[in-house]
Amino acid sequence: MAATAPLPVSTNPLATLCRVIGAHAPTAGDFATGIADLSVYRRNAPAPPITCIVEPSVVLVAQGAKEMVIGGDVFPYDTTRFLVTSLNIPANSAVTMASDAAPCLGLVFKLDLRTLAELIAQDGHLPVNGQPFHTSAGVGELSPKLLESFARLIQLLEEPAAIPVLWPLVQREIHYRLLLSDQAPLLRHIASVGSKGHRIAKAIDWMKLNYAAPLRVDELASQVQMGLSTFHQHFRQLTAMSPLQYQKWLRLNEAKRLMLNEHLDAATAAFKVGYESPSQFSREYVRQFGTPPKRDIAELRSSAERAAAVTPGLP
């Protein structure tokens, strides 16, 4: 089969991104796309930080500006800088520049750590040195070539039939460009098999699958072949919390999802995610979200109903 030529990119990749993202995010919100690892968003006004979980991904702003707060670190990004996160971590996301006339438009591109590891292993010419870091997120300079590769990615949404053929090529190109960026050391730290970052990533994957089970931190450290004190140190460096705090965060957010989407009551959701005491669950829920479970879920449903009434037919 002859190689397929890449899609052309306009002389202004940011304009391409804004045009396509605007078409696929017609109102304020987050929108899935026809590409599984790509979502787009629109914000029509500045907004204070809201809690979210950040998967290994790149967040790009095509118009406007945002910032991410992880632990005590603030990561501002805009049309010249991209945000990269290398682990599943809790964070606070804020919109710092947006309006009805010039909304904040952007995309979220999920990273494939396996693709990163393959590229690292195959290409001996990729840079290996970089500044030290003590976090699982960073802000990098958006080079022209990386910007163009994202423009090619977003243009695939205008040619759905080409996605199965061209998506793997563009996805691999973006990962390669990221490994040439100033955030390459961070990505190598997580993707390189055997590194401490890779071991913490494996531990987090286990915790996500087993959040309802009792957590023996010493056993988990041994499972990923790390000493207990080293495991604690690197886990906190990369997630801004201890393993037990991370497990609690996973449990509370899953319980919130169960109450909101599956209509479980608070006690049932608490037991399902591993709590033995509904009262303890309620106390920790209030500390995490600021409101008792029943009231919080009622307010979320009421907000969703009001939004649906204003913009009927949205997914």
Automatic annotation (TrEMBL):
<protein>
    <submittedName>
        <fullName>AraC family transcriptional regulator</fullName>
    </submittedName>
</protein>
<dbReference type="InterPro" id="IPR009057">
    <property type="entry name" value="Homeodomain-like_sf"/>
</dbReference>
<keyword id="KW-0805">Transcription regulation</keyword>
<dbReference type="InterPro" id="IPR009594">
    <property type="entry name" value="Tscrpt_reg_HTH_AraC_N"/>
</dbReference>
<keyword id="KW-0804">Transcription</keyword>
<dbReference type="Pfam" id="PF12833">
    <property type="entry name" value="HTH_18"/>
</dbReference>
<feature type="domain" description="HTH araC/xylS-type">
    <location>
        <begin position="201"/>
        <end position="299"/>
    </location>
</feature>
<dbReference type="Pfam" id="PF06719">
    <property type="entry name" value="AraC_N"/>
</dbReference>
<dbReference type="InterPro" id="IPR018060">
    <property type="entry name" value="HTH_AraC"/>
</dbReference>
